[in-house]
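Appendix B, example 12.
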Amino acid sequence: MGRKKEEHETALVKNYISTALLLLMEQNDYQSITVTDIAKKAGVSRMTYYRTYSSKEDILIQYFNNIANDFISEIKSHPNITLYQLAVHFFTFFREHGNLIPTLKKANLLELVFQNFVDNLKNFYTNLLGKQNLSASANYHLHFSAGGLSFALILWSDSGYKETPEQMAQMIASFMTPPLDITKTPEK
């Protein structure tokens, strides 16, 4: 089998497995979901599951890494994107996947998502800036921003997504004005 075809099939299997887990999480307690449940719902064997993942958490981490990679690709394709436009993309995604946050909250997995969000935000900034390490100030700013976005997202979800993604983006952009320039070090 060609490498491209094998990569495509692996991506499909990962998608089936992550979709199966998320669907099962909507209906069942996270802790009670077994590998057999996931494999059966995904239409794959347990062997395929174990060849692909070692835990349910791995599935979720990979799922969020894929989301982050897609999001970063989208941003890179628009080099002059504004903070407002970035926030619209962010909130639009989560509104389109409206069950995701409540499902993760029910399973007590929001911390896993938050940490993954911070890690992906760090990777994004280090790639964007071409630096291996962020300054202490930039690192605190990333955690502050990730925390604020995460909790705003949870509150928005809890309220039933009443506001539009554009309204949410406008609020978030106004909170971040003027944005912190993480490329500069403070003068002493």
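The radius of gyration is 18 Å. Residues 16 and 43 are 8 Å apart (CA to CA).
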